[in-house]
Structures are given as structure tokens and as C-alpha cells.
Backbone:
């Protein structure tokens, strides 16, 4: 995204939003909006995606409002929800067990309905009727990092992990009871190969043979939309045969580079405490690695390299694509370290940069500690991926809904 594109988006947005409304949604001052408009200061390139999302939402709120309903299971901070709202969906039920994620979710989406914590004991019959079920069911039991760690500790993983792995069957229980027109399940790429493919085989058999859904799946790398390698498996199912195909996905030819999500530190961005400080909104020094930590990481990486192991910190430049952001990022940030130039210690991403790295707009409110924010974004989904999948799912969901409504109408006329 260039400065000029951001300015074009801003001018388009000003035709639909007041300065006050834009300032609130972009989390900047009205004065800053005015200075961008008058070109007294550059409109920063990183706000272009947020403006694009606002314009898209404005169009679809007017044209596609409440075209279908969905429930948001294992919702996290609402990344999947954002994608399906942009396609005209309305959320009617949310479950999320983590208290901090609940706080972030409510801050960003409001409390139009109570959030259910533990979905396991919750009666499926009490869940509202809905057109689409969304579930980013916990991935730690199946992730490469999760399996390696649990093997080392002698702990169960996958379906053997009764606290998380079997939550898939609670999703299946709800699908069986409520029979939504469609579902979307999201998980880590390693789900395909876990337990020599047996775990995935059980999941697909359950969805296809036991529940009778037409199932599609694909691994999608988020790097087409954000400067991050993040491969996730998306499983989509429809209650009836449809013309849905993942081949309809529109992948950008070339994804953005890291500079597009970094704080510019040149005064074009308003200070956002505690992430940036001063007139130029410089990144707070607390995100810069101390000499001790930087020396430790270099020595640790050298030791593992000498032993033939793969450990190494992820030092990246502004024109690079980052590794996968994980929920462990709060520990030392070693997987994604920003190169600050020769003779300078690298730094971690700020939570706001992590939000951008996951495709969240700058209007997303971060109200928790850095530790919790890193965990939340590391456990989340890439929002533009969900938006694109929702875009190609929505027409088929709406078709099924209309067919169902016509069938009910005909039955009423014949009665």
C-alpha cells in the first residue's frame, strides 16, 4: 500500500463518513484526519487496509445486512467473525472460554448477546438457529510445536488430549443438532498429517459420512494478504451439494512486505501509548531487545546450528515476509525480530503491529496487557483470509437459505 493509495482511500471514505466517525474508527484525532486531508502530513500507507475495510463494511452493511446468520465458536478475539460480517452475516451466538479474549471481543463487538464460556456442557438445543457455524477449534493438540512439546513432556496430544483435542466432537454435536446450512472449521496445517493422517481422516469421515455434509478443504497461506507465512487448513461443508469451490479464491499476485505493517516512526502516525511515544510516534524502547537477551539469542542459535538443529531467531527486514506469529511471542519475540540496522539491537513487534500482521484494522481496540495481546493475536486468524473465504461461501449459503424459505412457503400453501 502506497501513501497515494492511502490518500485516495481517505478521500473516498470522507464521502461516506464524518471526520469524527473516521477518527473514532481509526483511533486517531479529528485534527490528524484534517491534516491528512489537507496533505499537511502524509497519510500513512498502513491505514489503507483499514480504510478499505471500512468502505467494504459500509457497502455491505447497506446492501447485504443480515443476509445470513452465524455462530462463532472458540471465537478468540473475533477474527473469523470479521470476515463473515463483511460478507453480510450477523452473529447470533458466541463461545470463548478465555476471560481476556472475552474482554477484547466485547470491547470490539459489543455485548448484543452473552458470551458462553465452556461449550462442552452447553446444550446444543439452546443454541439459536443459524445458517453458518464457524469454529476455529483449538489447534495446540495438532500443531507441530504443540505435538513436539507434549511428546517431550510425555503428555497426550491430538484426540488423546481430552481437554482440547476432542472439542471437535462438540462441534460435530452442535452440527448434528442444529443442521446449519454450512460450516467453516479452521486449524493448523499439521492437522492433515497428525497421527499419520488418522486424525484428519476421522474428522472428514465424521463430517461427511456421519453428518452427511458436502466437504471441501484447502491449505491457505496468509502471505498473499499479509507479510507473514501462516499456513492454515480451512474445512468448509454444505448441507446440500452446491457449486462451491476453493478455486474461486482470488489470491493477490504478490503479498505486502513487512514495512506495510510497521510503525513509520516519522510523525505520519499518531502516538499510540504504550506502543509508540513522542511527536514522531517512535516505537517505545521497551520493545528493543536488551544486550543480555540479544547476546543470549545469538549464542543459543549458534549452539543449535552447530548441533545440526533448526532453532534460530527470525531476524527480518522491512522488505521481508515474517515467519508465523505464535502465541509464544510474548516470551522473547525471537520468531520475528525487526532488524534496526547495523550496530543496533533488533526489536519485537508491538501489539499494534501484530494486529496489522494478522489483518486486523487499526480500529481494533487493544485493551489488554502486551502479554495477553501477543497471545491473542498469535492464536487468531488472518482476517483477510476469512473475508475471502466468506466471500465465496456466502452466495451458496444464501441460495440454500432461499431454497429453504421457498420450501417452507410451498408447504404452508399446500397445508
Residues:
Amino acid at each position: 500500500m502506497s501513501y497515494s493509495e492511502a490518500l485516495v482511500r481517505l478521500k473516498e471514505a470522507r464521502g461516506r463518513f464524518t471526520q469524527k466517525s473516521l477518527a473514532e474508527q481509526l483511533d486517531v484525532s479529528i485534527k490528524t484526519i484534517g491534516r491528512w486531508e489537507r496533505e499537511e502530513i502524509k497519510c500513512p500507507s498502513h491505514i489503507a487496509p483499514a480504510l478499505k475495510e471500512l468502505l467494504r463494511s459500509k457497502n455491505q452493511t447497506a446492501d447485504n445486512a443480515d443476509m445470513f446468520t452465524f455462530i462463532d465458536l472458540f471465537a478468540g478475539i473475533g477474527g473469523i467473525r470479521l470476515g463473515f460480517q463483511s460478507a453480510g452475516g450477523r452473529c447470533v451466538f458466541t463461545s470463548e472460554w478465555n476471560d481476556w479474549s472475552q474482554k477484547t471481543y466485547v470491547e470490539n463487538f459489543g455485548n448484543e448477546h452473552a458470551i458462553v464460556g465452556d461449550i462442552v456442557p452447553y446444550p446444543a438445543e439452546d443454541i439459536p438457529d443459524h445458517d453458518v457455524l464457524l469454529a476455529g477449534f483449538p489447534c495446540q493438540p495438532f500443531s507441530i510445536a504443540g505435538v513436539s512439546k507434549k511428546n517431550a513432556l510425555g503428555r497426550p496430544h491430538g484426540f488423546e488430549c481430552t481437554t482440547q483435542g476432542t472439542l471437535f466432537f462438540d462441534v460435530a454435536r452442535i452440527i448434528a443438532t442444529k443442521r446449519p446450512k454450512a460450516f467453516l472449521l479452521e486449524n493448523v496445517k499439521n492437522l492433515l498429517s497428525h497421527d499419520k493422517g488418522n486424525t484428519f481422516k476421522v474428522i472428514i469421515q465424521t463430517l461427511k459420512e456421519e453428518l452427511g455434509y458436502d466437504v471441501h478443504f484447502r491449505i491457505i497461506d496468509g502471505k498473499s494478504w499479509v507479510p507473514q507465512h501462516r499456513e492454515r487448513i480451512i474445512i468448509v461443508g454444505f448441507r446440500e451439494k452446491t457449486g462451491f469451490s476453493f478455486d474461486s479464491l482470488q489470491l493477490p499476485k504478490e503479498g505486502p512486505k513487512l514495512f506495510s505493517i510497521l510503525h513509520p516512526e516519522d510523525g505520519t502516525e499518531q502516538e499510540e501509548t504504550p506502543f509508540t511515544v513522542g511527536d514522531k510516534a517512535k516505537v517505545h524502547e521497551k520493545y528493543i531487545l536488551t544486550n543480555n537477551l540479544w547476546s543470549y539469542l545469538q549464542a543459543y542459535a549458534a549452539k543449535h546450528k552447530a548441533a545440526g538443529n533448526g532453532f534460530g531467531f527470525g531476524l527480518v527486514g522491512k522488505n521481508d515476509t515474517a515467519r508465523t506469529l505464535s502465541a509464544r511471542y510474548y516470551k522473547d519475540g525471537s520468531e520475528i525480530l525487526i532488524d534496526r540496522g547495523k550496530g543496533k539491537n533488533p526489536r519485537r513487534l508491538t501489539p499494534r503491529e501484530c494486529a496489522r500482521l494478522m489483518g486486523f484494522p487499526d480500529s481494533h481496540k487493544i485493551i489488554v496487557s502486551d502479554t495477553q495481546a501477543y497471545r491473542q493475536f498469535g492464536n487468531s486468524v488472518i482476517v483477510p483470509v476469512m473475508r475471502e473465504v466468506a466471500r465465496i461461501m456466502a452466495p451458496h449459503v444464501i441460495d440454500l437459505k432461499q431454497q429453504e424459505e421457498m420450501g417452507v412457503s410451498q408447504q404452508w400453501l399446500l397445508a
User: Anything to note?
Assistant: Residues 23 and 30 are 5 Å apart (CA to CA). The domain at 66-243 is CATH 3.40.50.150 (Rossmann fold).
